Amino acid sequence: MFNKRLKLPFAKIKTIKSAEIQKEQIDVTEAKTDEESHIPSSGHVLIQKVKDALHNPADLIVKNIPPNLTLIYIDDLVDNRPLNDQILRGLFKSTHESPEKIKELLAIPKVDLSSHLDKSILALLNGTVLIHVEGYSKLVLGNIATRKSRSLSAPENESQVIGSQVGFNESLSTNVSLVRRYIINPDLCKENHVIGNKTNTTIALLYIKGIASEQMVNTLRQRITDLNIDSLIDSSVLVQLIDDNSLSPFPQMLLTERPDRFCDGLLNGKLGIIVDGSSMAIICPQTFIEFFQSREDENLRWPIASFLRILRISAVFLSVYLTPLYVAALTFHYEVIPQSLLIPLSESRALVPFPPILEALILELIIELLREAGARLPTKIGQTIGIVGGIVIGTAAVQAGITSNILIIIVALSALASFTSPSYMMGNVIRVIRFPIIILAGFWGFYGIMLAFCFILIHLLRQSSLGSPYTSPFYPPRLIDWRDSIIRMPLPFTNRRPKVTRAQDEKKYNPEPINPQKKLN
Fold it and tell me: How far apart are CA 437 and CA 428, in angstroms?
């Protein structure tokens, strides 16, 4: 059998040689990087490398324990009690031991060995004590981190009368423990991810295996791991990075500070994200109608819960369209105003020098200024500014002839209705979209209002949340989910998880047969 020589073109041979050279250069660079990231066997060299990596911070503590041990940690990031009781007391008795022996000796929950300097420095910044034994190229990592956070308190933005009165705080471990208190189940899965090249923020992805859709879990996990950003401070920023359409003003994922609502979402097949340092957790996927549902609805009888949901939905339309209808009627469509209201309206607007559109925009801006000022000022002063400022400015505006009494009532009702949304993010959207609708109503009357309605409806129909329809269960129509949408039917009729979550186990419980007159055994 003859050996056949491969005849390659000169350009191809040159390309192969250059690829081999590049590969050798990459291998040399990686070898140097690995060599630099190794733990030095000398304690003095290790201390200098740690100081250089952290730019010699003032709170870096280095303790030498004769004859051969070195402790390195950052002050205020470690708990002093386990440092003194479990680590220092034990190390003074065994100064000649190897790193493996010291790991077995330390009586703390999280102890590990590391041979990489970069990982060890990152652990140091997370409240870990580095223990180095002279002559060994390994470090003992003892995690005794302490995180100072406020104590648990009632939720401020999602208050309710009946139900739990505890909310999340800024500690990731505390928030996860709250979730585990509600859901005592081995199928509750928790995945930790680190986001932010500068902040190295830890986030926790939670879901219930066997209920949550594996496709949704993989999709959300991929979106998280694909992020390449410098910093992540709050969960509200993460929502804008991973939702389906960050250009839309409508939120596609729910931010909540209630552990019970968070756990209720997980039990329905949804996914949850908790960000370290943030008191708001993320729930997804989320539909548009769910932003107007409260966790307290589940604790109330179904007629009361249904009435409150209908009231919230009606308040949304009232808040968005009441002022534009007033502007359109006074500008173009006098015939729709009842005759009994024409005289009061004409008398109220007799001294007003502005057209209805300008009058409405001025009052809406004043309401928003009062709301923003009340939110930014301290609590007691903010309440005073909101009440007294509204009364004084409204009265003065009417007496000066800038606006009419009827428009003040309409704008006040619209502002009041916008606060009925249980979601703060959705409430902001409702207040903002009023302004373009008022402008369209001032230029084209009812036709402008209908144009705005169609545009919003088309926009909502195009949205999705983690790949699921945003307007479900109305479009695409899923009649079985209507039982827990605008009207909350009795519990025996809501025993199935919503279709939007694509849950693996659709049934939540076996409903008891309805029997109004149950007989006692």
Answer: 15
